């Protein structure tokens, strides 16, 4: 500890005098942290996600899901290997699926065993320095319809019919019983209270966990269409009249026990087709807009069609809400089913560039070892084109970002930022994917290399710093 303190003091002294950049190996741990800084922007009018030190955050990662196991076996499909392998490939973020039906199997009875299972998974995240958002996941509402999410005891259908569609599960959202169940969840006072209490339990348990960045109150919320409504009109009404007050209720419940965690709010999944959301203002200072980024044709296994301009239309529509309400964006799910189609290489390159223009990060669907959506195969090697998600990036920037870009063809990442002029962290953290990478800094800054594909840049207060990361 004394050696680290002396080294940090020497570095600060050197940086306070005009000098050229140097490369310094073996960075000390815990150096140079302090008070929060002002917010910065990622994109035109969209604020950046920040940490407790005020540094601009970039989240790159994957969803971690175990939908197959519940009860005593809940979360058994998620292992330490996932966090170790994700971090080794340069990813720092996981959206962890948790299920209300496992947490509260009977009204008012919360499973301590399930909370311990979540805690075990979060322990692995902490070990490998992966930030986690807890996602209260639902697919087709919950177990009453053969899926996971809202408990059966909280499912009210008014006797309306439900017909399974095993070959097209998403169409089950439009079954009358499922749609009515959403209406009751949003409108029934006792179910509102139950959902808020469930979130209070989760937030109170994990508010101080160092791996937990925040909370995602409900995955891909849907609702009930009214007679004569088309889908975009219904989605915007549901978002405006039902989701907005729901998020405000849940935010209040979380804030009663946790003042610091970010709250990730989702629109309906219809935004994936370039439909602007109808969500209103969530009255909380730490809201993140967390849309999903899926295309219907690609979800069915089809190829990317650049001529359809889906990415451009999505980006134009999805950025309206964060610009209006001044909240950061983190895309909670994305990634096609069939990654071997001819245009998928182009898709990943264009999607990564688009996400970099307006978001503070994203979580691909999903980190698993197999086929389909899985990021890697059974050996842990990237599946076709998934390797394009692994880029150099700045996990945390101490200061105001002026520009950030990556040229995948040249293998060059560039970051320019202004370090803070008042007290605050001076440590910018870089993540490097597997391979040989050279890191250089211009301005009054040092580069300190860490093990495991990490590097730190330490800058003098008020310095304009340009970092260049080069492959090979």
Percent helix, as a range, is 25-40%
In N-to-C order, the SSE pattern is: HEEEHEHHEHHEHEEEHHHEHEEEEEEEEE
Radius of gyration: 22 Å
Major β-sheet annotation: 7 strands, parallel
Question: In one word, what is the shape?
Answer: globular
Distance between the termini: 34 Å
Order of strands across the biggest sheet? 8-7-6-5-4-3-11
Q: Whole-number average pLDDT?
A: 91
* Beta strand %: 15-25%
Number of helices: 11
Spell out the key features of this protein.
472 residues, alpha/beta, seven-stranded parallel sheet, six-stranded mixed sheet, 11 helices, 19 strands, 20% strand, globular
How would you briefly describe this protein structure?
By secondary structure, the protein is of the alpha/beta class.
Task: Outline the structure in words.
A seven-stranded parallel β-sheet has the order 8-7-6-5-4-3-11. It has a six-stranded mixed β-sheet with strand order 1-17-18-15-12-2. A four-stranded antiparallel β-sheet has the order 13-14-19-16, with no helix packed on it. The protein has helices spanning 2-15, 80-88, 100-103, 112-127, 176-187, 189-206, 231-255, 296-299, 310-318, 320-325, 344-358; strands at residues 22-25, 56-57, 59-64, 93-98, 131-136, 212-216, 262-265, 287-289, 292-293, 333-334, 361-364, 393-397, 400-407, 412-418, 427-431, 437-442, 445-450, 454-459, 464-471. The protein is globular, with a radius of gyration of 22 Å. It contains eleven helices and 19 strands. The protein has 472 residues and is of the alpha/beta class. The model is unreliable at 1-42 (pLDDT under 50). It starts with a helix and ends with a strand.
């Amino acid at each position: 500890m004394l050696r680290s303190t002396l080294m940090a003091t020497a570095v600060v002294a050197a940086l306070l005098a005009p000098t050229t950049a140097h490369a310094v190996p073996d960075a000390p741990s815990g150096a140079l942290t302090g008070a929060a800084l002002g917010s910065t922007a990622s994109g035109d009018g969209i604020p950046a996600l920040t940490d407790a030190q005020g540094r601009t955050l970039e989240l790159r990662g994957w969803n971690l899901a175990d939908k197959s196991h519940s009860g005593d076996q809940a979360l058994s499909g998620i292992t330490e290997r996932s966090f170790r392998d994700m971090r080794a490939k340069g990813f720092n973020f996981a959206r962890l699926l948790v299920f209300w039906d496992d947490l509260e199997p009977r009204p008012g009875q919360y499973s301590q065993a399930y909370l311990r299972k979540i805690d075990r998974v979060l322990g692995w995240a902490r070990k490998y320095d992966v930030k986690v958002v807890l996602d209260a996941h639902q697919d087709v509402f919950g177990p009453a319809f053969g899926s996971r999410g809202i408990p059966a005891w909280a499912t009210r259908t008014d006797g309306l019919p439900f017909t399974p569609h095993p070959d097209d599960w998403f169409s089950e959202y439009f079954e009358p019983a499922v749609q009515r169940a959403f209406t009751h969840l949003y409108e029934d006072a006792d179910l509102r209270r139950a959902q808020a209490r469930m979130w209070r339990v989760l937030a109170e348990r994990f508010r101080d966990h160092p791996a937990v960045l925040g909370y995602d109150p409900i995955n891909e919320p849907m609702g009930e269409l009214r007679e004569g409504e088309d889908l975009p009109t219904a989605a915007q009404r549901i978002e405006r009249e039902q989701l907005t007050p729901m998020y405000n209720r849940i935010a209040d419940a979380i804030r009663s026990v946790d003042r610091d965690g970010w709250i990730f709010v989702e629109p309906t999944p219809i935004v994936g087709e370039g439909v602007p959301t109808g969500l209103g203002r969530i009255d909380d200072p730490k809201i993140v807009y967390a849309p999903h980024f899926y295309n219907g044709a690609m979800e069915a296994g089809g190829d990317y069609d650049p001529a359809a301009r889906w990415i451009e239309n999505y980006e134009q529509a999805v950025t309206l809400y964060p610009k209006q309400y001044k909240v950061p964006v983190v895309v909670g799910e994305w990634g096609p089913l069939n990654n071997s189609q001819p245009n998928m290489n182009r898709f990943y390159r264009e999607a990564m560039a688009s996400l970099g223009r307006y978001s503070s990060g994203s979580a691909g669907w999903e980190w698993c070892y197999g086929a389909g959506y899985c990021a890697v195969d059974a050996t842990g090697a990237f599946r076709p084109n998934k390797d394009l998600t692994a880029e150099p990036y700045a996990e945390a920037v101490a200061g105001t970002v002026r520009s950030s870009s990556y040229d995948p063809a040249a293998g060059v990442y560039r970051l320019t930022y202004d370090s803070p002029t008042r007290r605050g962290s001076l440590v910018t953290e870089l993540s490097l994917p597997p391979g040989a990478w050279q890191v250089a800094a211009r301005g009054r800054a040092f580069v300190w290399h860490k093990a495991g594909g990490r590097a730190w840049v330490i800058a003098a207060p008020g310095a304009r710093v340009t970092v260049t990361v080069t492959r090979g």
